[in-house]
Amino acid sequence: MTPNRSMSWQGNVRILASLFALSGLIIGAMLYVGAWPVVPFAGLELAGVTAALYYTALRCRQQEILIIEDEALRLEKGIYRLESKWELPRRYTRLVMTEPPHPWTPPALHLRHRDTEVPLAPFLNSDDNALLVQALQRQGIAIERRARASIPGGPF
């Protein structure tokens, strides 16, 4: 399972190059009229946009692999490499679906065995989330549905 990737890294680089070119034109015009204090702020802005695009592209590379075997469920997570791994007994592990706080957000999914609760694919959209739940049901994984916890002092 991976997040939806709307743009490749090359697409991000093209956007950054066009932002740098546009900012260069604007900075050049500002320098021409003597507004040199704008230059450091434009540099900070471009650095912030570059950092945000890099972070987003990195988070879109995360991957989760759920291996369903006869006796166990293995969940492996990582970005570019294996970073964490869980092995849970299939017979006693269930999928916990927590009702979302807003109708447009998907339910939170967790694999639960005793005191171990592992988040499962928090990056999936509602449709992909429903497909995952159906696939796990077909494999015989028990589904537990939970109402969302009320927020103290909240409107609900």
Annotate the secondary structure layout.
Elements lengths: L8 H24 L5 H22 L2 E7 L3 E8 L4 E6 L4 E5 L9 E6 L2 E4 L6 H13 L3 E5 L10
Parallel strand pairs: 4-7
Antiparallel strand pairs: 1-2, 2-3, 4-5, 5-6
Helix pairs in contact: 1-2
Give an account of the 3D structure.
The protein is of the alpha+beta class and 156 residues long. It has 2 domains: 51 residues; 82 residues. The protein has 3 helices and 7 strands, in the order H-H-E-E-E-E-E-E-H-E. The chain has a 4-stranded mixed beta sheet with strand order 6-5-4-7, with helices on one face. Strands 1-2-3 form a 3-stranded antiparallel beta sheet, with no helix packed on it. Helix 1 runs antiparallel to helix 2. The longest helix has 24 residues. The mean pLDDT is 90.
Please summarize what this structure is.
The chain has helices spanning 9-32, 38-59, 126-138; strands at residues 62-68, 72-79, 84-89, 94-98, 108-113, 116-119, 142-146.
Question: How large a portion of the residues is in β-strands, by DSSP E?
Answer: 25-35%
Number of domains: 2
Quaternary structure state of the chains depicted: single chain
Q: Judging from the principal axes of the Cα atoms, what is the shape? A: elongated
Give the SSE order as H and E letters: HHEEEEEEHE
Spatial order of the strands forming the largest sheet: 6-5-4-7
